């Protein structure tokens, strides 16, 4: 299967967002970037287009472009860099980074067993000239020395070395690797360091700075290539005691800036006696969680991300807040969730402008020069300053002929809510400053950080969301019956609506004041409400357009509602609970205004995993963890018969054949798909669906085959943690065959059609779209859309 779209981002991974520049295509002049971020046990690479000078971004999950000769559009899906061993070893990406040359991606991992080896994997991203993405499923180099977890990674400025830090089970070991052959050059214990950064000197003997817990301190490490050993020297902080989260080094290697858990930023000298220099008065609520250096602004600036979701600009010299008063930005912006990653990229136009300013030797007008403006010149002729009316007229003319805001840097921010948002560092583009009449080069004007949408005068809808996903494992997927092109997912306390074609997020429904988990969702037949099952035992109705809560059925199942299904006319709702009860609810008007309990049936002894109606809705089937599937007579609300699976396996799904009510298909944890005769309650066929992992979900789709008199049943199944795959089986049966001949060739008719591998953990749900052209799967990483 072809992976068409993926929506997910590991928001807990520190410094997980990275950006690489690519040259524009021949038929497209837009700015082209690569967005690199972790996703479960793999690293995802997406193509990103910035439009209008970076003011807006094209959807990064699927990018389409038409060929010059007018052929079909080419879809560029996201690519996943992982190894098959990642799935077997149950690894998770904990940190990811890219090399300064833009050719390599490195990712550190964490394993479930602390004594096992946690490797650092290295991939080559770009081909010759970086004009195309080089697909490579297996890693270029595997660096194996750490145990349990790798907490931080950093490339050297020359891209010849990479440094890695281990976790607590590895005694926080610092290892320097040589990329040419993947050998470890040296290793030392750091006694609590959690972040590492290289200095910018290009040398065969690289230097590093590590920081972390207060006991570890801030240490400068110098590597000796002849002895293959580290020499260390601590930076003296005096009476300052801080736990450091992030360290960055200035461009000329004279200072190191430390973001701390207490919310302030420290400035430490890396030269001479390596003394503590300054502490910021600015404090972030929730502590500093990310720190980034802003280059090419005429002065050193810092972007500080906090636990409260704020992003602010500090002057690196004074560590004071730095923003342009009176501009559209107020110097601080807020993202959705705790900031875990900040990436700053200077725009191409700004780079050219900065080069021109440096070459021309433009004079920087400081405040002191402005104060001396009204003093007499040494010349004999007295220069009279312009009047206020003249200044205002010039300013008005300058504003009419220039944009109000100029973007200088593009800022990508990753949050703990699994969102990647786009911001901009901007400056006022007025050529004449107010009250002086003096002309100041744009490259020297103060900067302010604003959201991308606020900087773009054509958009006023808030921040630009580059990549967004659920911040909890996705539990269920629902397609509306009478609408095409969208689906809903639920995870945590949120329900989200997506476009099926490119998985673009349409809306979010958040249950305010609810601490429970949404387990299952279904669309009402009329499409005016979304019905959701919650672990607190309630069933809630939400409006898909406004997201408002329409109604609540309280205490439906005391232990929690696990699954739902609604009839085609919307008059009957059936629910299953974690206590094993199946309840039938009547909705006389087909809505949520009058809901009544019709029957409560308690036959199962464990959690209900699925409930489904037959095609004529006279029978309902419930699948449970007690190893049984029960058929219910909906007219009498009583048990019709029980289908007992073999080996007491958990029955995960029970679905009626879309074209034949006499056939029931079940999927169980013993890796089997079983076809049942509804009339006799006996199994007719068994299919070994998975070799190593349980079947966690099942979906069916029926379609007419090309040959007359034949029907094709497509079966989509998902695997568990041991083998998290999505598989499609095809069951083609001809009606003119006799029954005996069918039974003889029953096992031969079910064949494996396709396999999809992108998940790294258990796949919770898989479903066909209504037209059968796509499959949507979900799990802990996010939502994946496959093209059949």
How would you classify the helix and strand content by structural class? mainly beta
Q: Mind telling me the C-alpha Rg? A: 31 Å
Helix count from the secondary structure assignment:
7
Outline, from the CA principal axes?
elongated
User: What level of helicity do the residues show?
Assistant: under 10%
Distance between the termini: 6 Å
Which percent range describes the beta-strand content?
Answer: over 45%
Averaged pLDDT: 80
Q: Name the poorly predicted regions.
A: 59-76, 128-137, 324-329, 353-382, 431-437, 455-462, 736-747
Biggest beta-sheet profile: 5 strands, antiparallel
Give the tally of β-strands.
Answer: 60
Structure description:
This protein is mostly beta strands and 788 residues long. Helix content is 6%, strand content 47%. Among the domains are: 9-81 and 293-360 and 380-469, no CATH class; 473-602, YVTN repeat-like/Quinoprotein amine dehydrogenase (Methylamine Dehydrogenase, Chain H, 7 Propeller), CATH 2.130.10; 614-788, YVTN repeat-like/Quinoprotein amine dehydrogenase (Methylamine Dehydrogenase, Chain H, 7 Propeller), CATH 2.130.10. It is built from 7 helices and 60 strands. Strands 2, 3, 4, 5 and 8 form a 5-stranded antiparallel beta sheet that branches. Strand 4 and strand 5 form a beta hairpin. Mean pLDDT is 80; it is low at 59-76, 128-137, 324-329, 353-382, 431-437, 455-462 and 736-747.
